[in-house]
Queue: 4 jobs
Job 1
Amino acid sequence: MSEKRIENITDFEKAVSDAQYGRMPIIGEQYQELYRGQSKESYELKSGISRYAKSLEDIRQIEKNVLKDFRDLINESEDTKRFIQLSGDKNGFQNDWRMLEQIQHYRLPTRLLDWSLDPKIALFFAVESNHEYSGQFWVFKSPLNWSNDDHF
């Protein structure tokens, strides 16, 4: 892992270009870059749930409770679109990972981290608050064929 200091938009564009350097989709490269911004340099790359938990068992219990409460809320609602953005079918989220994707957008703690395909979105989150602190801009090279359906 390498670190680079980004002071301006030119530095940012160079960092993105460097991260993408050598990738040649036309010959079948099997990865793509994912980007994440965090508003403080001191923040660890940790999920929301791991910031509250002291152990793996705590993570499991918190996640189990959050999933149950969110499902109960959906089941009690007559308008599932108020809570589930990608599907109007409340039975379409039997997969916990798909449900966690939805829960994440309500700022509830999950084990997921938000990443973007667009580096400018990550840059926004790195600089949009905590103006007195330096932010972080992360790049992760993800396998192109990765899917949470395949791996979880």
Note: Strands lie at 31-38, 136-143.
Job 2
Amino acid sequence: MLVFIDADTILPKYFIQSFENRVNEKHFQAGSFTQKMNSDNLAIRAGAHFMSGYMRLMQYTPWPIGFGCLYITKEAFNAVDGFDESLYIMEDYDIILQAKRAGYKKITAKIPIQVSKKLNNYSADILVPTCSPLAARTRLSSCSNLQTTNGNL
């Protein structure tokens, strides 16, 4: 199993054991993890909660999503030719979509991971799905509305 983790992600102490148990129990092949944000900003915490729910819901559609922390079997990773290096953003959405299209079982693992407190500097709109699944479906490499409260990303 390959696991890809964003640099600002803090894994819980029980992450490896919980993930191993879930993989063995559910036979995961590709997916991502729910997220939580320990922020003083209610909008950021609510946004993370919303995105985790959105991610869980989307796994049952033709357009699954995943971000932040992904997992995929080596077999599935090779079958979809890894990450599409031509994408500047949303490569995490794309690889999950490609794995599902290739027939691999995609599941959002309910193992909450924490994203760094540095997100306290971002506006809540960055946590809302401003990039539609259409962008990943069609392999578009641009997305609008990504900005911090001070205008810099």
Note: Helices lie at 15-26, 42-58, 74-79, 91-101, 133-138.
Job 3
Amino acid sequence: MTMLFQFSKNQIADRKTMFDFIGKYTHVTSENHDEYLKSLGVSFLLRKAWLAATPIVEITETAPGKWKMVTTTSFYTSAVEFEEGVPFDEQTFDGRDCKTTFVFETETRLIQEQKCTKAGGKDTKLIWDCYSDKLLLQTICEDVTSKHVFLRN
């Protein structure tokens, strides 16, 4: 589907500030996610489980400038706490050990970079765009991009 990321001028004008990232969002659709997971080297069974899941993402500000993002599915929960621009250690759902950094590129765009700390591991970039009623997520590994829509609960 090519329509996921096409919006009218009114929808673009309705984008929110970074504080409006705060909330709970349910995954409703994705494009090219199996190819993205393959590019990471994720096993067939884990790919199928992930593709069948309905992730819920909750974003909170725990203190001024300190953020928490919790992703929950029926088989996996991930919680990361971060400060903008401060790298931290993270183990991803697929088992990669990464140095992860979050940066607000704009008030409505959050960039998450995961740099693998083990030789031969793959780096990824996640781009989170906040709108009044949804989060749009692009996940990028090498030359493969997947796109996701999460609706605000």
Note: Confidence is low (pLDDT under 50) at residues 5-17.
Job 4
Amino acid sequence: MQLFIEGYRSHNYYLYNAITDAAYFYAEELLSKRLLKNLQIDIKLTKDLKKKEGAYGFCHILDDDLNNPREFHIELDASMKHSTKEILTWLAHEMTHLKQFVRKELYDYQDGSVQWKSKRYMRKLKYDDMPWEKEAYRLEEKLYNEFTEWYYE
């Protein structure tokens, strides 16, 4: 797995290392070694992302091969008002979406519909009712807590 981190606060040694270690930890927890092998993840830390885009994070496929994506862009709100814990929790959430794309559990169609596992949904669902978001919220705290136990032991 290749990992690149850039943007706002990426010069902060502690935050940079925590994000690096967390990204590798989350990837290893969520994906097999075979799937990790060819992954490339670009993480961009953005000031006031929530204010600008209405979310604390995004996970986008960069790869031309949408059926077998291996290149991703994760963007996180790294504003000074947000703690490292919050940023690492949002990273766990977005890494869950990355896992969903890589394992072909989640697929976005150009007509705005989304396939989650074997069922196709129109984007008319409320955000909190989307099953892929439910999984990401369920796993974000679990992954963060497991990471901190490992990181600080």
Note: The mean pLDDT is 94.
